[in-house]
Design brief:
This protein is an alpha/beta fold. It contains 13 helices and 5 strands. A 5-stranded mixed sheet has the order 2-1-3-4-5. Helix 1 packs across helix 2 and helix 7 crosses helix 8. The structure holds zinc ion.
């Protein structure tokens, strides 16, 4: 690729009436602005221009990588050999819920899929592919579905406003809302209603993961993997347990039998 770029540039240069040796042409080419990332096999270029709005991110990355090596000199070399995470995290894309940071885990510890409002549905090939790879290949032991209070996706699904394309995605949460509409309508406070739907939406995703043929097959062949529901409070930085811990088809059946009124009142 370098040769092609150089040749093209040299042709352009000589076509303009210059007839210098290749050495001199190459020397002048050093001042010709060529795409800095060519060829891609050279790997990443060193820096953005210093006034680029993202240059600070590369600087922070360099500082971070150095600090990691200072603590563990072969950390990245070991990571390059492969990953063996024990946890699959299915969470919201919200920037305030970064799984590794809130769990105090390092790169390599968590396999992750995040989307708007941590929705797991059996039509999402992206999410299902992540689950299948995590269970069948990585053999994760724990799958965590994590909702979070203050979720914009859940709040949007509670309302009637239209947001365009994302309305299709929010329909999944609106369906959950409809399943539990009586209990939700009984809650007078809007924030409380939103917090309840955050929990119900996470519960539904837990059930949908557990109901998937991927988990069914894993349990049937005796693989130990469980599905747990958590909720994160962005006001405190704390994770809480939602009471859904499913590690077998029997557990799944028990949780599926729980009626909506029981979820709101705690009474059968
Ligand atoms: Zn969210």
């Amino acid at each position: 690729m370098t040769d092609i770029v150089d040749t093209l540039a040299i042709r352009k240069y000589t076509a303009a009436g210059h007839h210098e040796s290749h050495y001199h042409v190459a020397e002048k080419l050093a001042h010709v602005h060529l795409a800095p990332r060519q060829p891609v096999t050279y790997g990443p270029s060193g820096r953005f221009e210093h006034d680029h709005p993202l240059s600070n991110l590369l600087h922070k990355n360099e500082t971070w990588a150095k600090s990691v090596v200072d603590c563990s000199c072969d950390f990245f070399e070991r990571g390059a050999l492969g990953q063996r995470p024990e946890v699959l995290w299915l969470g919201c894309a919200d920037s305030r819920v970064p799984e590794c940071e809130i769990l105090q885990l390092a790169p390599g510890d968590v396999f992750t899929h995040r989307n708007i409002a941590n929705v797991v549905v059996n039509t999402d090939l992206n999410c299902l592919s992540v689950i299948q790879y995590a269970v069948d290949v990585l053999k994760v032991k724990h799958i965590i579905v994590c909702g979070h209070y203050g979720c914009g996706g859940v709040a949007a699904a509670l309302g009637e406003h239209s947001y365009g394309l994302i309305d299709h995605w929010l329909l999944n949460i609106k369906n959950v809302k409809q399943q539990h509409i009586k209990g939700l309508d009984d809650l007078a406070d809007e924030e409380e209603k939103c917090r309840a739907l955050v929990e119900l939406n996470a519960r539904q995703s837990v059930l949908n993961v557990a109901k998937s043929p991927i988990l069914r097959a894993a349990w049937e062949r005796g693989q130990e993997v469980d599905v747990t529901g958590l909720v994160y409070d962005i006001k405190t930085g704390l994770l809480g347990e939602l009471g859904y811990h499913i590690s077998s088809l029997t557990d799944l059946a028990d949780h599926e039998e729980t009626g909506s009124s029981v979820l709101f009142t705690g009474k059968p």
